[in-house]
Design brief:
With 118 residues, the protein is mainly alpha-helical. It contains three helices and two strands, in the order H-E-E-H-H. It has a two-stranded antiparallel sheet with strand order 1-2. The longest helix has 63 residues, at 42-104. The termini are far apart.
């Protein structure tokens, strides 16, 4: 799999080099925020545009990752609180069940079996 991936990137690099070589003698005019730049190499424009796009994408992606990690951390803290609360409630239920059993426990086993109280 590593060989296929390496081969893929070599092909991509070769296509990019060929594309840049074909457009090396091309120049463009750029209007950017009211300023005009003339006779700019097309390869330079493509390269700078690609780098700025990658940089902007990386910043946005990093911001999203940080935001989601903070949200996940908050959810984990809330989950721990809720699990602790569940454990406390389960403990209370067990204590109440035991107290109920003790209250219903007959004091005299002989009197509870007869069902008749004279």
């Amino acid at each position: 799999m590593k060989i296929i991936l390496t081969f893929f990137w070599i092909i991509i690099g070769a296509v990019l080099l060929w594309f840049f070589a074909e457009n090396l003698d091309q120049s463009v005019t750029i209007d950017f925020f009211g300023r005009t730049y003339e006779h700019i190499n097309l390869v330079t424009v493509i390269f700078v545009s690609t780098l700025l796009g990658l940089l902007l994408g990386t910043v946005i992606m990093t911001w999203q990752v940080i935001k989601h990690k903070a949200r996940a951390s908050s959810a984990k803290r809330e989950n721990k609180k809720l699990l602790k609360k569940i454990e406390e409630l389960e403990k209370q239920v067990k204590e109440q069940e035991q107290a109920a059993k003790l209250r219903n426990w007959p004091d005299d086993p002989d009197s509870s079996n007869s069902g008749f109280n004279p």
